[in-house]
Design a protein that fits this description.
By secondary structure, the protein is α/β, with parallel strands linked by helices. It contains ten helices and eight strands. The protein has one domain: 3-Layer(aba) Sandwich (Rossmann fold), CATH 3.40.50.150. The protein has an eight-stranded mixed beta sheet with strand order 1-4-3-2-5-6-8-7, with helices on both faces. It is globular, with a radius of gyration of 17 Å.
C-alpha cells in the first residue's frame, strides 16, 4: 500500500463515526470515556458486546455483525489503515452494530471494564513461534488473565488460525490451567460439524492459506475462575 493511500485512510478514520482512536495516555491514565460504557455510549444500546482482537481488514467483525444484528461487534487492531476497509464497508452497508478501535491488544483490560465484554474472537494471530516472543502470544496465560477480567462470567473465546503450532500451544495451555474446551478441531473444512460462522466467514489471509492447501484450525473455550 502506498503512503498516499495510507494517509488517506488515516484521514478517513478520523471522520468515520464507527472508528475510535484513543491515545495511549488516555487509556493508561484512565481518562478514556468509553470504559464501562461501550454499549450505552458508543453503540447506543444494551446488546451483547463482542470483540475481534487483531481484526486485520475487519472481515470477521463485519461478517459477524451482518449475521447477528442484535449484537455489537468491535474490531481491534493497531493498524488503522488495514481495518479502514471494514469500517468503510460497515458505514456503506449501514451497520451500526460494527465498530473499530485502534489500539494495542495488551491494553485491552484497561479499555474495558470488568465483565463488560460478552465474547472474544481471535482470528489468525501471529503465532510468535520463537521462544523469546512467547510474551506476545495472544493466548498465553497473561493474555488469558486479561480476557478473563473483561469477560462476563462464562463468556466465550474463539481462536481461528492457520497455525497448528498456535492451535496446539493454546490447547496445552487451556488443559494445563483447567479451562473449559468446548470445541476443538485441527481442520474445520474437513469437519462437517464446524459452526457455520466459522466456515461461513473467511478473511483475506484465510483465503490465501486455503489456496496454499493449509489447514484452518478452530478452538472455542471458556475460562474458569
Amino acid at each position: 500500500m502506498g503512503s498516499k493511500n495510507k494517509l488517506k485512510r488515516f484521514k478517513d478514520n478520523e471522520i468515520f463515526d464507527n472508528v475510535v482512536q484513543p491515545t495511549r495516555s488516555e487509556i493508561v491514565d484512565q481518562t478514556y470515556p468509553y470504559k464501562g460504557r461501550w454499549k450505552q455510549d458508543f453503540f447506543k444500546n444494551d446488546n451483547p458486546l463482542v470483540l475481534e482482537l487483531g481484526c486485520g481488514k475487519g472481515e470477521y467483525t463485519v461478517g459477524l455483525a451482518k449475521r447477528n444484528p442484535d449484537c455489537n461487534y468491535l474490531g481491534i487492531d493497531i493498524k488503522g489503515a488495514r481495518f479502514w476497509r471494514g469500517a468503510k464497508t460497515a458505514l456503506e452497508d449501514d451497520m451500526p452494530n460494527a465498530g473499530f478501535l485502534r489500539t494495542q491488544i495488551e491494553l485491552v483490560d484497561q479499555i474495558f471494564a470488568p465483565g463488560e465484554v460478552d465474547e472474544i474472537w481471535i482470528t489468525f494471530p501471529d503465532p510468535q513461534i520463537k521462544w523469546k516472543r512467547t510474551k506476545h502470544r495472544m493466548t498465553n496465560p497473561k493474555f488469558l488473565d486479561k480476557y478473563k477480567r473483561i469477560l462476563t462470567p462464562g463468556g466465550l473465546i474463539h481462536l481461528k488460525t492457520d497455525s497448528e503450532f498456535m492451535h496446539g500451544y493454546t490447547l496445552g495451555i487451556l488443559e494445563g490451567l483447567g479451562h473449559d474446551i468446548i470445541y476443538a478441531h485441527h481442520d474445520i473444512y474437513v469437519n462437517h460439524e464446524a459452526p457455520e460462522e466459522v466456515v461461513g466467514i473467511q478473511t483475506f489471509y484465510e483465503q490465501q492459506y486455503l489456496d496454499q492447501k493449509k489447514s484452518i484450525t478452530y478452538l472455542k473455550f471458556r475460562l474458569k475462575d
